[in-house]
């Protein structure tokens, strides 16, 4: 249960930290209407004594329920918002003081919004960014060619952004964030709303980018599969505070959460009987089995494949809200922040 505290020290204080937060706070002043012509001032502490470091080249998941403070953190890391307290540095730069200088070093992708010009063909947005970021011609060409090839954008360059599908637009946005070769990439829900194939393509691209270029990546997502496939380390934030920092498996252990194995059998059969999982739902030849999220699905799959007429299967991660709710229920959250 004390996994979180132990694991945290493994990652902190590493030399060459690229992102550094020390006791960072963000308090918003909000006015709430309490009656006709009357309002009350209230303070919302969106980020509360947040401290963590990310070494150069690490790909880290940054997750939490709605309203936890993730976007506020990312906005402070880009310099859009100024912290109310604490110390924050990205590549040695104080983001809110030197926002323009920092812009050359960072790339940002917001899954729910586009940075592309809606009415223009994709390539025109890239040409504008070329000028805006004053990217040397050779470097721009090289980065564009690479992104076009790896993100399969060749057929889309002349299409107005408004006509792109969500998955195509997302790939277009990721390329836009990388044209100036940033050292760090902030990704806010990069796979939201994408189909399975588009998700796989985006994840593969990010994995290669991180491996080949050593780009530091901070990834915010509600999809734990993104984290499982991309990040060795995950940070959980709730009510503006860091609740957990360590590997995803450790988070599952703290929360004692479960994954679901969905199996399609050749025909309708009685519930599957295996030691390490329990059937939670049966619908015709399809069965849902819950098993501990911290353990591997491989032995379970092998066992079922050997004993049952298996046609197809998939593994579903628990949702973040469930994992966090279980963490609280087990008392894991208190241990992680202590
Ligand atoms: N400009 C603002 N003014 C007042 N309150 C704000 C402002 N921005 C964010 N908040 C509040 O700060 C808290 C954290 O919000 P934030 O957007 O950072 O959460 P989040 O983790 O990104 O959530 P989501 O997953 O829904 O995007 C919330 O209570 C939110 O209402």
Automatic annotation (TrEMBL):
Q: Which GO terms describe its cellular component?
A: plasma membrane
Name where it's found. Cell membrane
Q: SMART domains from the entry?
A: AAA
Q: Which Gene3D superfamilies match?
A: P-loop containing nucleotide triphosphate hydrolases (3.40.50.300)
This protein's membrane topology, according to the annotation, is: Peripheral membrane protein
TM stretches of this protein: none
| ABC transporter domain location | 19-264
Ordered alphabetically, the record's keywords are: Antibiotic resistance, ATP-binding, Nucleotide-binding, Transport
The record ties this protein, via Pfam families, to:
ABC_tran (PF00005)
Which GO biological process categories is it annotated with?
response to antibiotic
Signal peptide location: none
The Swiss-Prot or TrEMBL record annotates one GO molecular function as: ATP hydrolysis activity
InterPro entries reported for this sequence: AAA+_ATPase (IPR003593), ABC_transporter-like_ATP-bd (IPR003439), ABC_transporter_ATP-binding (IPR050763), P-loop_NTPase (IPR027417)
- Record has Hydrolase as a keyword: no
Write down what this protein is called.
ABC transporter ATP-binding protein
């Amino acid at each position: 249960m004390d996994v979180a505290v132990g694991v945290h020290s493994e990652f902190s204080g590493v030399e060459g930290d690229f992102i550094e937060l020390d006791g960072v706070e963000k308090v918003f002043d909000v006015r709430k209407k309490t009656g006709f012509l009357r309002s009350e001032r209230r303070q919302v502490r969106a980020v509360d004594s947040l401290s963590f470091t990310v070494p150069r080249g690490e790909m880290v998941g940054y997750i939490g329920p709605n309203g936890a403070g993730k976007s506020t953190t990312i906005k402070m890391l880009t310099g859009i918002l100024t912290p109310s307290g604490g110390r924050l540095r990205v590549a040695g730069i104080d983001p809110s003081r030197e926002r323009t200088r920092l812009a050359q070093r960072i790339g940002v992708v917001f899954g729910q919004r586009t940075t592309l010009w809606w009415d223009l063909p994709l390539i025109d947005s890239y040409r504008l960014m070329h000028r805006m970021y004053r990217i040397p011609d050779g470097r721009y060409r090289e980065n564009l060619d690479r992104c076009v090839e790896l993100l399969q954008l060749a057929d889309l360059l002349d299409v107005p952004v408004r006509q792109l599908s969500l998955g195509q637009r997302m790939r277009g946005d990721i390329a836009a964030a990388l044209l100036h070769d940033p050292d760090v990439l902030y990704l806010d829900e990069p796979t939201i709303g994408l189909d399975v194939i588009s998700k796989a393509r985006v994840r593969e691209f990010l994995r290669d980018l991180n491996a080949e270029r050593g780009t530091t990546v901070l990834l915010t997502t509600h999809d734990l599969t993104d984290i499982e496939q991309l990040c060795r380390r995950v940070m959980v934030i709730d009510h503006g505070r860091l609740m957990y920092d360590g590997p995803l498996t450790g988070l599952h252990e703290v929360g004692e959460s479960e994954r679901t194995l969905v199996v399609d059998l050749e025909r309708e059969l009685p519930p599957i009987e295996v030691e390490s999982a329990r059937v939670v739902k049966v619908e015709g030849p399809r069965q849902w089995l819950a098993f501990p999220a911290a353990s591997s699905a491989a032995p379970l799959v092998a066992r079922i494949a050997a004993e049952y007429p298996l046609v197809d299967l998939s593994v579903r991660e628990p949702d973040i809200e469930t994992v966090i709710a279980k963490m609280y229920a087990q008392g894991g959250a208190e241990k992680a922040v202590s």
